[in-house]
Design goal:
This protein has 550 residues and is α/β, with parallel strands linked by helices. The chain folds into three domains: 167 residues, Thiamin diphosphate (ThDP)-binding fold, Pyr/PP domains (Rossmann fold, 3-Layer(aba) Sandwich), CATH 3.40.50.970; 162 residues, Rossmann fold (3-Layer(aba) Sandwich); 195 residues, 3-Layer(aba) Sandwich (Rossmann fold). It is built from 20 helices and 20 strands. A six-stranded parallel sheet has the order 3-2-4-5-7-6, sandwiched between helices. It has a six-stranded parallel sheet with strand order 11-10-9-12-13-14, sandwiched between helices. A six-stranded parallel sheet has the order 16-15-17-18-20-19, sandwiched between helices. Strand 2, helix 2 and strand 3 form a beta-alpha-beta unit. Helix 1 crosses helix 2 and helix 12 packs parallel to helix 19. The radius of gyration is 24 Å and the shape is globular.
Amino acid sequence: MTLRTGGRVLVDNLVAQGCDRLFQVPGESFLAVLDALVDTPAIEVVTCRQEGGVTFMASADGKLTGRPGIAFVTRGPGATNAAIGVHVAQQDSLPMILFIGDIDRGTRHREAFQEIDFEAMFAPVAKWAARIDDATRIPEYVARAYATAMNGRPGPVVLALPEDMLLDQVEVADRPRVEKLRQAPDAPSMERLIEMLRVAERPVAIVGGAGWCDGTATAFASAATRLGLPVAAAFRQQDSLSNEMPVYAGNLGYGPCPLLPRRIKDADLLLVVGARMGEATTDGYTLVTPDHPGQTLVHIHPDPDELGRVYRTDLSICADMRSFARALDAVPDLPRFDSGAAAHAEWLDWSDPRPRDGVTMDLGPCVATMRERLPADTIICNGAGNFSAWWHRYWRYSGPCSQLAPTCGAMGYGTPAAVAAALRHPKRQVVAIAGDGDFLMNGQELATAVQHRADMLVLVIDNGGYGTIRMHQEREFPGRVSATSLGNPDFAALARAYGAWADTVDTTEAFAPALDRAMEQTGVRLLHIRTDISVINPGTTIEAIRASHR
């Protein structure tokens, strides 16, 4: 061992844990880390434009790799800006570690410049929040952070780094790489599950949450197909498995296939695999109530603290998704149902867009055009807003890590997530879908995308308003519009100013040629798509919402 600064020890231990990329906005509070990164070619440093973009990118990278995405920000304003991505990582069960450069140890509790108690601040929205006061313990804290972020229900860890600690010279050994734990389901529980399936008449599976990789999706799809079991995806987790599987029934959440909620309510057995069954997935805990009278509920989840926390379970199985999927697929004599094929046919009919009369820019056919022209494994990234409903309904996700979308409903997520995806998968097509209000919350990360030579397509859906809130406003107070209109820039001109290729689309017919032109380019490309806010979502209009109140 040799003397190293705390900053050097930290970077060396990130390398030991397999970190090859981190996202950051620099701050004087962690200069020792930035200095150590100069001599660390193993880690690519992505310099972002706002700390919310940093943690959005890191959380997206965590989903794409299965190991924690790494973020660095400075204290005070940097940490408060970064908090939104921590919340996303927590609610979306994504592994991430946020390092915050902090004040000197000797000035704590004086309300020093930009001082915040980060352990108290992040405790409600992180799996673990701590401060490293002793540089000799950095390897211990980093290894524990990786283990905590990945295991059980994945999520974010926040570690504060006093700037004087990072300058301490210490001798300490690095910790070895931490791996995600595998936990197989116990045999008695699997036997009981199979018996429950044998006596069930109308079973339905709901899948989602963390831990869905290609192997998991393949094994579960094989078992579900042999069962003939309808499989619904939790809200914004449509990429848990391929939507082309013959028993896929569509997604729950806002605007599901109209026949799917009835299928869920009529089910006598609900097989919930990995999903938390949150508010959006269950339509405010009404589609499936916490006590679900008349229904049997089997919940499979990797975290024992999640099992039985909200929902009464008739059978709880604590296992990781891959181990459970493989165990289920290994059962040779599974029972057979005919409802899966019917549910898939219903979803196929509902998810094929049909032109809407009198609509100048109709997003449904635009999504169909994208399905024809883009690769099946395209990664679709979106933030929050009604604009995303067209892709949730009409796009067909190819499987794990083809959808980056915040289940917690955070705006501004899509563009930073697309940057992370484009850097992580440079050979795959990456598309960011953003509303006008959504885009301007983190549109400055186009500069990051251009600087780091990301290859990605951005679609800005511009209806001149905060569409989701306008929809709720019209439902609750018809015709009384307040605070939801937006005066927007020329998004194509803005993109060109960042160094991207850009074009503007005003009609449905103009979309396909514009997409073809965009696909002929490389680097960052943006299509500014102007729409009418009256076409508020794929299923209705503002006029129809108002008329329903007359």
